[in-house]
Design a protein that fits this description.
This protein is of the alpha+beta class and 388 residues long. It has eleven helices and ten strands.
């Protein structure tokens, strides 16, 4: 039986809010407590959603977006304000939620031939203006939800395409590997969302791996906060350093600095820095556009090869195997994967290395569902479709 677990996944981790609750600024403290309370309430509402996911399907191969306005409320989804093909509104949050969800859909379709987050044309629903000055955005298992930010620490959460790509990728994981949201498997869950969120941005901006900033949430921090983003894949632990607000970015960049903690589901947003750095290493070593090779290796591994309890070592093995299948055993791409993981303190197993030479790639039977099949090694990027 397929493992199925839905978890409300927030872009801003709890350790940031816990630090903000110690601020000398009363307004900042209040906003942090508010964010923690609203997040806890949102998790509580999540329990009854699972059975209704199937009702959100659209026609196969047809992009369907809807945007709702919460108007400061929390009863999802809110008032419908824009649907697929509708004209832009005067509300920038509505338009960003609509456009960036479309970019994410187009990216998955063009690069991986994936039909929405569930690969069955699931409608992409978004609700903006959730609660009052809510400092977060999240995927709740069926839709995207965005706060406006308090203007002191965070700006509006629809402003960053990589944040939207990150959160929608939690939906992809939900319908594929369903990685447990705890400790290393949870960090891999967050990591895969960071990878794809960054790649959505790079693909949309037509940036190579060398040109990309590799930041998650650049532009999300309000003016005056000492930082550039929520996370840096290129240099984990350097995204922000502001003792008066966010504190210091706690992400480690290698296994020797792995953080053992009971907070944040075992540090899922913290230790994701380790595989993030590994992916950056791989993409940089391969060069060119990161979505064309490194991205396809990761997509193949994370949607087809990992079980829900996968650990970092499993991800290293799976991506090494995928690189051999897609681009050839012993080729530069596979070597880059092995070295990329080794540089963060994780080695591909000797059994995987010796066994990869015997890998043969076969097309899946026509009757096999797409999510259980390997991505064909011949898949190529397609031209980006215009927004609509």
């Amino acid at each position: 039986m397929k493992h199925e677990h839905h978890h409300v996944c927030f872009i801003v981790p709890p350790h940031i809010f816990k630090h903000l609750t110690t601020s000398s600024n009363a307004a900042v403290r209040e906003a942090a407590h508010h964010a923690l309370e609203v997040s806890a309430a949102a998790r509580g509402k999540r329990t009854a959603i699972g059975p209704f996911v199937g009702l959100l399907a659209a026609s196969p191969g047809v992009k369907q977006r809807t945007v709702y306005d919460e108007k400061g409320g929390t009863k999802l989804p809110g008032k419908l304000v824009r649907k697929e093909g509708g004209k832009a509104t005067s509300d920038v949050s509505v338009n960003e939620a609509y456009d960036y969800a479309g970019d994410t859909y187009d990216f998955y379709e063009a690069v991986f031939a994936r039909n929405s987050v569930d690969n069955k044309g699931m409608r992409l629903d978004s609700s903006v203006h959730y609660n009052h000055k809510f400092n977060n955005a999240f995927w709740d298992g069926t839709q995207m939800v965005y706060g406006d930010g308090d203007g002191q620490i965070f700006t509006r959460f629809t402003a960053c395409i990589d944040v939207i790509g990150h959160e929608l990728t939690h939906g992809v994981t939900q319908f594929t590997s369903a990685l447990d949201y705890q400790a290393q498997s949870g960090a891999l869950n967050e990591h895969f969302s960071d990878v794809m969120g960054s790649l959505v941005k790079q693909w949309t901006l037509k940036q190579s791996a060398a040109q990309a900033d590799w930041l998650i949430g650049k532009g999300l921090l309000a003016p005056g906060v000492k930082g550039v983003a929520l996370r840096s894949m290129k240099a984990p632990g350097t995204a922000y350093n502001d003792p008066k607000t966010l504190g210091r970015d706690p992400q480690p960049a290698d296994m020797s600095h792995y953080v053992n903690t009971n907070q944040d589901n075992g540090g899922v947003h913290i230790n994701s820095g380790i595989p993030n750095k590994a992916f950056y290493n791989v993409a940089s070593a391969i060069g060119g556009n990161a979505w064309e090779k490194a991205g396809k290796i990761w997509y193949t591994a994370f949607t087809n090869k990992l079980g829900h309890t996968a650990q970092f070592a499993d991800a290293a093995n799976a991506t090494y195997e995928a690189a051999g299948e897609l681009f050839g055993v012993g080729k530069a791409e596979q070597i880059a994967v092995g070295e990329g993981w080794k540089n963060v303190g994780i080695n591909v197993s000797k059994q995987i290395i010796s066994g990869s030479a015997m890998i043969t790639v076969k097309a899946p039977p026509a009757s096999q569902p797409p999510d259980s099949a390997y991505v064909p090694p011949t898949i190529k990027s397609q031209p980006r479709k215009s927004k609509g």
